[in-house]
Structures are given as structure tokens and as C-alpha cells.
Design goal:
This protein is an all-beta fold and about 575 residues long. Among the domains are: about 50 residues, no CATH class; about 140 residues, YVTN repeat-like/Quinoprotein amine dehydrogenase (Methylamine Dehydrogenase, Chain H, 7 Propeller), CATH 2.130.10.10. About 0% of the residues lie in helices and about 30% in strands. The protein has no helices and 30 strands. The protein has a 4-stranded antiparallel sheet with strand order 3-30-29-28, with no helix packed on it. A 4-stranded antiparallel sheet has the order 4-5-6-7, with no helix packed on it. A hairpin with a 5-residue loop joins β14 and β15.
């Protein structure tokens, strides 16, 4: 064959290149087929198609450098023959026979398949594009809000390993799911894991271990191992001397007394009878022959504020006056010694009462009955004349509705067949337009009666009608009569029952809405007991009992809702239970 140029290179007639075009293998159900067309030149090889698109390689379209060509967007792999060079050709003749360098085969090549970067796999059957939790993460704990167990805290912090994040954990010390008694408190944090409810009487003792289910197991004043609320024989004594005493609902106690040197003292005790404040002087009085100051003490049953009041008979150019001191619930002075009533010439017959929160009234009689209203801060709000009786008023007593601050003041003439009362509102206005006369059989002179009022506004008058009888009349809140009572008593004085209530502070005690009353005397034989009795407002006797602990001319008894009873004889306070 003639050569046109010595620099002409012999081109190989066979360009052996098996081009394998493979489609994506993501789904596994597309097949790749390699075919050889026997009707074409051995250098004209057709390779299989992917996803229905056939790619063809024609050696006539390949340039001498063996560069890739594209057809229908398909990338063709270059042949594996060595590239041609510009070296001179040899004398060997060309031939149309296929070379034997790389015989063709019907088997697919094992070369790495090429991929078409322009193709996109749209089969998502094995791809999760909807994760279970997605969206914002407000608390930045890497758990999206829609799946966050604890939206306001870190779900990944779980110190006790109970699968409840600490920030939302009911019990940080144990498994929230373990709640043996089913009370909603996990066992590890339940003070009473075997009890539902835990502590019914709230005394800190689990119900299953409670000695006294209806009272505080921790209060055992006589240290006999039986809580006071379930002890029928509590015996505690506190030394005096004392003139008066009073108790709050929980059993807190205050005492008052006076000295012969013109001093008035108070001592305060907590409910467990530990000393709240040791005896201290609250005021003084002028020394006069008679009468004495009669210092009374009243404690608010809930707030435990205290008012101390006494008669200061007179002094040089100073008229008689009622003094008071107001204390807070720790027996610290709020209002120092202050005159409450002035202008009454003789103030022996005085009486003071206080309601549950600490509002108080002081009443005193002689030529008329004067009353002073004091608020729960110890400040006087008004001073008024309750009523003026025909003649001189003697025995005077006041009682308050503990719940509302309303009350009643009563007074008597020297003796005779009528007692008088007038009710007031909490704001110091009057419920009754004037003194209400109560006709009775007889009351003894100077001070022969007393009064009480319950939380329903019902009230009772109690009086000695003879040397061997005591009477009572109970009124409804509208002033109508609910019951008339009469009880026989020993003939304490041998025929003369006067001055039965002359010692100050005779307000009738309450047990719920019931009235706890008792016998009084001016003098009695040493071996004679006195009776106390509890009646409902409709006149039903609930219980009664007797005691040898008493003091002349006063109802020296206080009862509390927790079953504790306080008695005194002027020298000692005795604490017992469930009496009467």
C-alpha cells in the first residue's frame, strides 16, 4: 500500500472497547444486558442499556486520541487499548481481520461500571424521609418538641434512671412508676409508702403506726406513752400563783397575776406547755384599799394575740380607769399600757372578751355600762355607753362570737328578777336598739350571773337563783328563747349565794356550739366537789362531771377542741383531758 506521508501512522482497524453502561442499582430490579451484533464489524461493539436507553460505541466516531464521545446523554467509557502515537509505521501490511489482542466475548466485563451523573434515582422505597420526630427543639435537648417528654427540661438527664427526665421527675430519688399504696407519691419519696392516705391527723405519724388516729401522737404532756387526745387521764400541773388564765384552740396557755406592789405580770406557754415567754411585767396599778386590779387575760383562739386588762383604782388626783396591754402571738408588746375606759367612778365590775383573730371589747359598769372596742392591732376604735339601768349596775360580763366578732354585753342591778343584755355588731354598731330585759326568778346580789356566745350567734345567760339552784336560758341568734335550764346544787354557802361570779373572767366556755357551764360559790367546805356540765343550744345534756379543783366566785375552767381541759385553784393550773 502506498504511503502518502512518511509520518502517517498506521491506524488500527479494530478499536476494541467494550463499553459497559450501567444504570443505578438502588432498587435491584433494573437489568443490564451486554449484546454483540454479529452483523457488524468486530470493532463495532454495542453494549447494553440501562433503564431502557441504549448507548452505542462506533469506532469510526472515536478520534485517534481515544477520547470519550456522548450519545443521548450517555457517557462512553474509553477503550483500554494503548493510545496511538505519531511514531513511524512499520512495513507490516494492514489487515481487515480483527486483531487478537482482546477477543470479544458475550460475557459482561468486570470493569467498574460507570455512572451517569445526570441521572437521578427516584426510587425511595428504602429511604425514610418522614422521621418520627421533627421540628423545633425549644429546650435545646436534641429532642424535637413534638416528641419531648419534658418540654421545659433536658430529656437526656435522668439521674434515677426511671425514664422520666429529672426536670419532670416526681421523685428524683427513685422510680416514679413504683407506688405501692397508689397514693400518687412514688415509694422512694413517700413518707408513708404503705398508707393511703399517709397521715390523716397530720401529726407526722403514718396512719398504720398511729397510736391516736384523731390526735397528735407527739403531744403527751404527762409522758405516759398515751397521746393526750386519746388519754383519759392526763395530769399536768403548772405552778402559780395566778389570778386568771386562758387558752387558744391548740392548747397554748397564758396566765396573769398581780403583786402587792402594784405590778401586773403575764406568763405565756406554747401548746406543748413549754415556755413561750417567761413571766414579765406588762403594767402597774395604784395601790388602794379596795378593790384590787383583777387582771384578766384573753388569748385569741386562732391568731393567739393576747389582751391583758385590769382596774387601776385611783391615784393622786387621777380618776379610776381600765387599763389594757395588747400582745402579739409571741407575747411581745404591741400596745403598751393604755387607758381603755375612764369616767366611771367605780370599776370593779369589768369584763373583757376577744374573738378568734384578736378583736376585743372591754366593758365596765357602775352608774352606767361603758364599752370600748379594740381592733386586732390593739388599737381602740370606739368607746360607747352600752346602756344605763335604773339605779346602779353591778355584775357586768361580755362574750364574743369567735367567728364573726359580734357579741353580747350583760349587766344586772344589785339583785332581783331581771337581767339585761345588748348585742353588738363586729363594727361596733348595735344589733339591739337598747338594753333587753330578761325576766327571771331571782338573781343574787352584786355579781350573780354570767354570759356566753357561740359561733352561730346563740347565747346563754347563767345565774344563781338560790343557794341550791343554778339556772340558764339559751337564746337563738334572733333573740328568741331556745331553752330554759335549772339544776340543783349543793348548798355551798349555807343559805346565801351572793357574789357567785364576782371574780373576773367568767365567760362561758364552748365545745363546738355547745355550752360548758358549771357551779360556782362564794365559799364551800373543803371536801365538796363542784360540777361542770355541757348542754346543746336546745337544752340537751351531753355530759357532766365533778372535780375538787376550783376557785371561789369564778368559772375556772377552759376547754379546747382537741379534748384538753384546764382548771385552776388560784395556785396551780391542772391540765386534764375530756372533762367534763
Amino acid at each position: 500500500m502506498a504511503q502518502s506521508d512518511s509520518r502517517t501512522t498506521r491506524r488500527g482497524l479494530l478499536a476494541l472497547g467494550i463499553v459497559l453502561v450501567l444504570g443505578p442499582a438502588a432498587c435491584g430490579d433494573d437489568t443490564t444486558t451486554v449484546t454483540t451484533d454479529s452483523g457488524t464489524d468486530s470493532g463495532d461493539t454495542t453494549e447494553g442499556t440501562t433503564a431502557g436507553t441504549q448507548a452505542t460505541t462506533d469506532p469510526s466516531t472515536s478520534d485517534a486520541s481515544g477520547s470519550e464521545s456522548e450519545s443521548d446523554g450517555t457517557t462512553v467509557a474509553p477503550t483500554t487499548d494503548a493510545p496511538t502515537t505519531d511514531a513511524p509505521t512499520t512495513d507490516e501490511p494492514t489487515t481487515d481481520e480483527p486483531t487478537t489482542d482482546a477477543p470479544t466475548t458475550d460475557e459482561p466485563t468486570t470493569d467498574e461500571p460507570t455512572t451517569d451523573p445526570t441521572e437521578t434515582d427516584t426510587d425511595t422505597s428504602d429511604t425514610d424521609i418522614n422521621p418520627e420526630c421533627q421540628g423545633p427543639d425549644s429546650d435545646n435537648d436534641t429532642v424535637p418538641d413534638e416528641c419531648d417528654v419534658c418540654p421545659d427540661g433536658d430529656d437526656l438527664l435522668d439521674g434515677d434512671g426511671d425514664l422520666v427526665p429529672d426536670a419532670c421527675d416526681v421523685c428524683l430519688d427513685g422510680d416514679d412508676a413504683l407506688d405501692g399504696d397508689g397514693d400518687g407519691v412514688p415509694d422512694a419519696c413517700d413518707p408513708c409508702p404503705d398508707d393511703n392516705p399517709d397521715d390523716t391527723d397530720q401529726d407526722g405519724v403514718c396512719d398504720s403506726d398511729d397510736i391516736c388516729p384523731d390526735g397528735d401522737d407527739n403531744v403527751d404532756l404527762d409522758n405516759d406513752g398515751v397521746p393526750d387526745a386519746c388519754d383519759d387521764d392526763v395530769e399536768v400541773q403548772l405552778p402559780g400563783p395566778l389570778y386568771d388564765f386562758d387558752t387558744a384552740d391548740d392548747g397554748a396557755l397564758v396566765l396573769s397575776r398581780h403583786s402587792n406592789n402594784g405590778e401586773v405580770f403575764v406568763t405565756c406557754y406554747n401548746a406543748d406547755l413549754s415556755v413561750r415567754k417567761a413571766e414579765f411585767q406588762v403594767g402597774g396599778y395604784d395601790l388602794e384599799p379596795a378593790p384590787g386590779p383583777g387582771p384578766t387575760v384573753n388569748i385569741a383562739r386562732e391568731s393567739q394575740k393576747v389582751i391583758v386588762s385590769w382596774h387601776d383604782p385611783a391615784g393622786a388626783n387621777i380618776p379610776p380607769r381600765m387599763e389594757y396591754v395588747y400582745l402579739d402571738n409571741q407575747c411581745e408588746v404591741i400596745t403598751p399600757e393604755t387607758p381603755a375606759v375612764q369616767g366611771v367612778n367605780y370599776m370593779e365590775y369589768h369584763s373583757t372578751a376577744i374573738d378568734a383573730v384578736g378583736n376585743a371589747v372591754i366593758a365596765v359598769s357602775r352608774e352606767y355600762t361603758q364599752i370600748t372596742f379594740i381592733d386586732s392591732d390593739g388599737v381602740i376604735t370606739s368607746q360607747q355607753t352600752a346602756f344605763t339601768l335604773n339605779g346602779t349596775a353591778y355584775g357586768t360580763h361580755v362574750a364574743m362570737n369567735q367567728a364573726t366578732g359580734e357579741g353580747v354585753v350583760s349587766a344586772q342591778p344589785h339583785s332581783g328578777g331581771a337581767l339585761y343584755y345588748r348585742r353588738f355588731n363586729a363594727d361596733g354598731t348595735w344589733k339591739d336598739p337598747g338594753a333587753v330585759a330578761v325576766p327571771i326568778n331571782y338573781h343574787y346580789w352584786y355579781d350573780g350571773h354570767t354570759v356566753g356566745m357561740n359561733d352561730a350567734g346563740q347565747f346563754v345567760l347563767l345565774w344563781r337563783s338560790s343557794s341550791s339552784l343554778v339556772d340558764a336560758r339559751v337564746f337563738d341568734s334572733d333573740g328568741s328563747t331556745l331553752a330554759n335550764l335549772q339544776r340543783p346544787t349543793p348548798n355551798f354557802e349555807g343559805g346565801s349565794a351572793y357574789d357567785s361570779y364576782r371574780r373576773r373572767h367568767n365567760e362561758i366556755q364552748l365545745r363546738g356550739d355547745n355550752f360548758v357551764m358549771g357551779e360556782t360559790y362564794r365559799s364551800k367546805p373543803a371536801n365538796l366537789d363542784i360540777m361542770h356540765f355541757e348542754y346543746t343550744p336546745d337544752g340537751t345534756l351531753i355530759t357532766e362531771g365533778s372535780t375538787d379543783i376550783s376557785v371561789a366566785m369564778v368559772l375556772a375552767i377552759r376547754v379546747t377542741p382537741n379534748g384538753r381541759t384546764y382548771l385552776h385553784d388560784g395556785q396551780t393550773v391542772y391540765v386534764t383531758s375530756n372533762y367534763p
